[in-house]
């Protein structure tokens, strides 16, 4: 359920300021740090933390990628573009990592895929790392399989809320939804009109169990959010919720050197 890889961005060089249209492969300036997460069952997971280049982040995204057995990993394109753009455009930090047994150009996380069972330790390691780094205003952003992990294991008092992209609700149960209802933190649910697994009418019915859930149906979008229009909609919705003081829609051009 993932999409795309790409060259690993480097820290930005100094250079002449130019105006650049932001495209799918555009990498904006940020501090990019290779990180490791350590689970309480003894595994090391690889990832990256991208933060604003010359100031503290105003909010933080803790991301959970799509299904690794269907191509999902930390570089799945929406998460990668969030890391490439949001530190510069919105002062938002983006943490990405590979769940157990998942490979990307960053490397391979230890362990094996367990279908969302032992991945609970991966979610806990992500939350602990974010707390150790004192990342501000932490929001979990899960995509597809990542939404299942969010609903099952993400109800942690240290987070501000969660954003779900294309939730299939295959592994997450009504009991998980009821627990989120009791948790009381914001839950934003972006559902593509043409999703392969759960479309807006069915999603509206299922998520009615979470009284505080905000369901956003996105016309014309599909499960993988392919195309710049779909990606832009996702990133704008994310920023509008995690950093409402930032003006949206986000800029579509960049003045200055690239990363």
SS-based class: alpha/beta
Oligomer: single chain
Radius of gyration: 17 Å
Percent in helix = 25-40%
Can you give the mean pLDDT?
A: 94
Please mark out the parts with pLDDT under 50 across 5 or more consecutive residues, or reply none.
Answer: 1-15
Question: Globular, elongated, flat, extended or rod-shaped: what is the shape?
Answer: globular
The neighbouring-strand order within the major sheet is 2-3-5-4-8-9-10-11
Q: What's the end-to-end separation, in Å? A: 27 Å
Secondary structure tally, helices: 6
Listing every helix as H and every strand as E from the N terminus to the C terminus, the arrangement reads EEEEHEEEHEHEHEHEHE
**Beta-strand segment tally:** 12
Strand content: 15-25%
Characterize the largest beta sheet: strand count, sense, and whether it forms a barrel: 8 strands, mixed
Question: Quick gist of this model?
Answer:
By secondary structure, the chain is an alpha/beta fold.
What does this structure look like?
With 259 residues, the protein is of the alpha/beta class. It has 6 helices and 12 strands. The chain has helices at 77-90, 119-132, 145-153, 174-183, 200-207, 228-242, and strands spanning 19-21, 31-38, 44-51, 59-64, 92-97, 103-104, 107-108, 138-143, 161-165, 187-192, 213-218, 253-255. Helix 1 crosses helix 6 (228-242) and helix 2 crosses helix 3 (145-153). The protein starts with 18 loop residues before the first strand and ends with a strand. Mean pLDDT is 94; it is low at 1-15.
């Amino acid at each position: 359920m993932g999409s795309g890889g790409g060259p690993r961005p480097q820290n930005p060089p100094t250079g002449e300021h130019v105006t650049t249209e932001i495209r799918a492969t555009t990498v904006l300036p940020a501090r990019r740090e290779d990180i490791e997460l350590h689970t309480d069952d003894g595994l090391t997971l690889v990832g990256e933390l991208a933060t604003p280049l010359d100031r503290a982040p105003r909010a933080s995204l803790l991301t959970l990628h799509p299904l690794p057995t269907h191509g999902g990993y930390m570089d799945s394109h929406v998460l990668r573009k969030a890391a490439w753009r949001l530190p510069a455009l919105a002062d938002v930090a983006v943490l990405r990592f590979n769940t157990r047994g998942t490979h990307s150009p960053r490397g391979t996380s230890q362990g094996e895929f367990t279908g969302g069972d032992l991945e609970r330790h991966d979610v806990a390691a992500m939350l602990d790392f974010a707390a150790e780094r004192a990342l501000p205003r932490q929001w979990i952003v899960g995509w597809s399989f990542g939404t299942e992990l969010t609903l099952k294991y993400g109800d942690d008092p240290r987070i501000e809320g969660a954003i779900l992209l294309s939730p299939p609700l295959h592994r997450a149960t009504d009991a998980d939804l009821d627990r989120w209802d009791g948790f009381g933190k914001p839950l934003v649910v972006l559902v593509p009109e043409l999703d392969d697994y759960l479309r807006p009418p069915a999603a509206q019915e299922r998520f009615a169990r979470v009284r505080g859930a905000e369901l956003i149906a996105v016309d014309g979008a599909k499960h993988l959010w392919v195309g710049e229009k779909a990606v832009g909609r996702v990133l704008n919705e994310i920023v509008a919720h995690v950093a409402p003081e930032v003006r949206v829609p986000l800029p579509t051009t960049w003045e200055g050197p690239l990363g």
